[in-house]
Amino acid sequence: MKGETSWVSHCLSNIHREIEFDILSEVTDEGSKEDAAVSLDLILPDELLERILSYLPIASIFRAGSVCKRWHEIVSSRRFIWNLSQVQLQKPWYFMFTSSDEPVGFAFDPIFRKWYGIELPYIETSNWFIASSCGLVCFMDNDSRSQLYSCNPITKECKRLLEPPGLKFPDYSALAISVNRVSHNYSISVVKSKQVPGDFFQWDLSVHIYDSETMMWATPLTEVLTGWRGGDESVICDGVLYFLIYSTGGCASENRHGLITYNLCNRSSHGLLMRSFTPAPCSLTCGRLMNIKEKLIMVGGIGKQDRSDIIKGIGIWALEGKGWQEIARMPHKFFQGFGEFDDVFASSGTGDLIYIQSYGSPYLLVFYVNQKHWRWAQKCPVTKRFPLQLFTGFCFEPRLEIVP
Ligand SMILES: *[C@@H]1O[C@H](CO)[C@@H](O)[C@H](O)[C@H]1NC(C)=O
Ligand SMILES: *[C@@H]1O[C@H](CO)[C@@H](O)[C@H](O)[C@H]1NC(C)=O
Ligand SMILES: *[C@@H]1O[C@H](CO)[C@@H](O)[C@H](O)[C@H]1NC(C)=O
Ligand SMILES: *[C@@H]1O[C@H](CO)[C@@H](O)[C@H](O)[C@H]1NC(C)=O
């Protein structure tokens, strides 16, 4: 099965063209597949075949498209692609950047446990801000923070969005996206944070929301925080925007991180942002927020009491009401398996999977939330070439029907 990965990688980088234009290419293929496929072909009416194919994982759907002309026509049809959205069996993939300067890397498919070479549209380097939801990935540049795209990395469809309003050159920005699974319209949020000039303890914070229906930004909230600043972690779950804030050391607080909750439906909380404050569950070094089936989950490094830059483990918590409940802790053998583990790491999750990787190595650990099961991903097909080479990544759902 050696050829598989390269076939898929070839096809994935050409999916859009495949679907739209490449109807003729597999006519030559027909003669060689006259075994099992043919008898199925004869028995099954189109609708049934369509239904069966729609239950396949994305990568198999592309392979099925090369079986014969009839199958190809089915998997290329708009109706089939639309119907796929009704069958939600796809598992989220993890894209790992293998270079800090270029947007190159591989995507891990947890169903086949394989890595595919796919190209990401538009993004220029791995330090851009990235958020994803239901097949769409949003990228924002990390210099001017004015270039913003929403893309489907599978079909390569991409759209440039208007620049978010508000403060220019914020010190911190947090990006999140939320796609409505029924209507496919989406919201993007940017939380900007900038120090008030000459005052170390005061930070301007503003929340900006983009609506794909109106294609406009709104700024429902601006506030000044004292002793706390925003950061670059945020996520939207079930209509609520969550973001982490970080102590600037003014008040002698033992919690260096906290969570702010902002309801996007009724958007009315002037002067009240800190009322929604939920302290981090322990001394965290690196909190990462994610949407797991519309529930807020946080992954974080558990700091040593005396040396907060060294972590002794990684925990996973779910927000239950106003408090955190620990749902898992990375077993020590996996933690050790990363080799040197920095106090910062990449982690991203959706659906029922959470991916964790250290910046220092191309190893990827998967946590299956429902089964509470940890498992290494297949080794990424890259090797570390120099000691300071960094790896990072994000997860997204592979979907054909979703359009930016
Ligand atoms: C696809 O969707 C259409 C419209 O909802 C439906 O009538 C049809 O049965 C679906 N086909 C399959 C194969 O699921
Ligand atoms: C943006 O760039 C800064 C400075 O290089 C870096 O510290 C930060 O982590 C970057 N943000 C993201 C999201 O990569
Ligand atoms: C998305 O579309 C649905 C129905 O079409 C609508 O009720 C909803 O308000 C829209 N949401 C956003 C965020 O635009
Ligand atoms: C916003 O709506 C939620 C329920 O959807 C409610 O719990 C909350 O109190 C509301 N907030 C404000 C400020 O009205």
Automatic annotation (TrEMBL):
Domain of life the protein comes from: Eukaryota
Organism for this UniProt entry: Cinchona calisaya
Every F-box domain range: 44-85
PANTHER family, sorted: F-BOX FAMILY PROTEIN, F-BOX ONLY PROTEIN 31
Pfam assignment, any one: F-box-like
Protein name: F-box domain-containing protein
UniProt keyword list: Ubl conjugation pathway
Pathway where it operates: Protein modification; protein ubiquitination
UniProt KW NADP keyword: no
Annotated SMART domains: FBOX
